[in-house]
């Protein structure tokens, strides 16, 4: 287990005192969330959950994650431009998954009518864990890529200052000074502003779609406040911070989605890019030859991308699918079973994974899932600070996300950037779950 901060981790009095200071620093810096009870007003807000101490991240893996981000931007872009690939890859999924099928239907319809806009704005976040593996030195392994509504670019830009303050209070001034500048919200806003500019109408606005329940309003405001205030009605850019789960849509919402998709507005993301972020597509990318076909003449990108992949398996109605199901039932702790869903809390592990596979193994329903090797990071100790929760030391693992922004104009990629990172940390007893799902907390990487 990593021994970072071991001189203070077990000093209870010190930890109590510093935790109180850390919470105040979080409130001051704006690491905020609305409460569950009052999710749509800001009369009562509290700090968003965060770690007391920054977590160790191997610098080589951190650099690797940044270095591959532009490749992932290229890859998502290439997939979204490749209707044949999407159709072929999602063919079995859309037979059994109504939500993906509905998205796909809109995708087909706008292609048939011809796209009204050749500008595309992509904002994604590629997430990784540091697999401990057998050799002992950790490896960067991708968990997933989020191509719609990737969150926490705002709040993560503010956690660094909190952790810097905490380290300074603890007398660790040298360590504090090494924490890196990180402002992905600024990068996201830059992408949106650039797309707006290329759209080319002074009176047009950016349309920001948010969920009914708006606990994470402060994260979104960070991006919004980086943009200019404008009047008018014409929409230049549609920026989705919802629309990725079935409950975001009723019949009218599906009609609105089609309307926006058919419009001249720049969509972030357009529906093809959203589909490019499905777990099924991620699994298909791991098949031999797929990356090479999508990114021809780009062997370096392909090698960097492939190095971050762990084992991913289709559960098609064939011998290979049967074999993987038998393997997973025999050794469920080796795998994660994933449906085509976003937002945390949807995956299946251990006993649940086994039960679901036993129940669906003879039905086409099994093809709505993919199977993935479980990434097993080395745990480390930290304190997870949450409003109204007792302070206790926890064994934790971290997930690093890198934000990517790109813009395509017709055939040209006019922007392709990485714009910052997000580190989220959770207690090892939770298999799944992000910050919004109440499991992980915000963190800052401390490079080792
Ligand atoms: P979502 O789109 O719902 O965020 P993810 O694929 O990111 O779906 O899975 C949710 C969480 O489950 C991750 O944040 C991570 O904690 C855990 N998880 C997902 N895949 C793996 C894996 N292969 N190994 C270990 N943990 C995983
Ligand atoms: Mg996701
Ligand atoms: Mg995720």
TrEMBL record:
Coiled-coil residue spans: none
Binding site for Mg(2+): 144, 146, 342
Cofactor: record remark: Binds 1 Mg(2+) ion per subunit.
Pathway: Sulfur metabolism; glutathione biosynthesis; glutathione from L-cysteine and L-glutamate: step 2/2
Highest taxon in the source lineage: Eukaryota
Chain positions recorded as ATP binding sites: 144, 279, 338-347, 349, 372-375, 399, 426, 432
Domain Glutathione synthase substrate-binding per the UniProt entry, residue ranges: 204-231, 232-276
EC number of this enzyme: 6.3.2.3
Keywords assigned by UniProt, alphabetized: ATP-binding, Glutathione biosynthesis, Ligase, Magnesium, Metal-binding, Nucleotide-binding
Needed co-factor(s): Mg(2+)
Presence of the UniProt keyword Ribonucleoprotein in the record: no
Ligase keyword on record: yes
SUPFAM superfamilies (alphabetical): Glutathione synthetase ATP-binding domain-like, PreATP-grasp domain
Catalysed reactions, semicolon-separated: gamma-L-glutamyl-L-cysteine + glycine + ATP = glutathione + ADP + phosphate + H(+)
Positions that bind substrate: 125, 424
Pfam family, one: GSH_synth_ATP
Cellular component GO terms held in the UniProt record: cytosol
GO molecular function: ATP binding; glutathione binding; glutathione synthase activity; magnesium ion binding
The protein's assembly and partners: Homodimer.
Family: Belongs to the eukaryotic GSH synthase family.
Name by which UniProt lists this protein: Glutathione synthetase
Naturally occurring in which organism (per UniProt): Alligator sinensis
């Amino acid at each position: 287990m990593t021994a970072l901060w071991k001189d203070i981790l077990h000093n209870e009095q010190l930890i109590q005192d510093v935790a109180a200071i850390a919470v105040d620093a979080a409130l001051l810096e704006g690491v905020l969330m609305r409460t569950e009870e009052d999710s749509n007003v800001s009369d009562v807000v509290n700090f968003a959950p965060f770690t007391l101490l920054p977590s160790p991240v191997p610098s080589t893996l951190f650099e690797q994650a940044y270095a591959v981000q532009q490749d992932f931007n290229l890859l998502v872009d290439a997939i979204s431009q490749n209707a044949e690939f999407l159709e072929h890859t999602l063919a079995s999924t859309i037979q059994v998954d109504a939500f993906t099928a509905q998205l796909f239907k809109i995708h087909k319809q706008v292609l048939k009518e011809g796209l009204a806009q050749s500008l595309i704005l992509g904002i994604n976040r590629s997430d990784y864990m540091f697999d401990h593996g057998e050799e002992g030195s950790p490896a960067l392994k991708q968990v997933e890529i989020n191509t719609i509504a990737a969150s926490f670019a705002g709040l993560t830009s503010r956690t660094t200052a909190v952790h810097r303050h905490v380290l300074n209070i603890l007398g660790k001034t040298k360590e504090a000074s090494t924490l890196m500048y990180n402002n992905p919200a600024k990068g996201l806003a830059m992408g949106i502003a650039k797309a707006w500019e290329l759209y080319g109408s002074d009176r047009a606005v950016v349309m920001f779609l948010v969920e009914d329940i708006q606990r994470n309003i402060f994260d979104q405001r960070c991006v919004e406040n980086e943009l200019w205030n404008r009047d008018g009605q014409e929409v230049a850019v549609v920026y989705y911070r919802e629309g990725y789960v079935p409950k975001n849509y009723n019949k009218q919402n599906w009609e609105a989605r089609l309307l926006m998709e058919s419009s001249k507005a720049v969509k972030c993301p357009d529906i093809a890019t959203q589909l490019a972020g499905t777990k099924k597509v991620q699994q298909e990318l791991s098949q031999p030859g797929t990356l090479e076909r999508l990114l021809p003449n780009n062997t370096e990108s392909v090698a960097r991308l492939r190095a971050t992949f762990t084992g991913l398996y289709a559960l098609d109605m064939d011998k290979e699918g049967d074999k993987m199901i038998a393997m997973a039932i025999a050794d469920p702790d080796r795998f994660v079973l994933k449906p085509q869903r976003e937002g945390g809390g949807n995956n299946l592990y251990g006993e649940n994974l086994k039960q679901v596979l036993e129940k669906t193994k003879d039905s086409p329903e099994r093809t709505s899932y993919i199977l993935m090797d479980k990434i097993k990071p080395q745990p480390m100790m930290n304190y997870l600070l949450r409003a109204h929760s007792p302070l206790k030391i926890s064994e934790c693992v971290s997930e690093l996300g890198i934000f990517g922004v790109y813009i395509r104009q017709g055939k040209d990629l006019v922007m392709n950037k990485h714009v910052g990172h997000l580190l989220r940390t959770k207690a090892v007893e939770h298999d799944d779950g992000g910050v919004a799902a109440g499991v992980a907390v915000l963190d800052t990487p401390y490079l080792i």
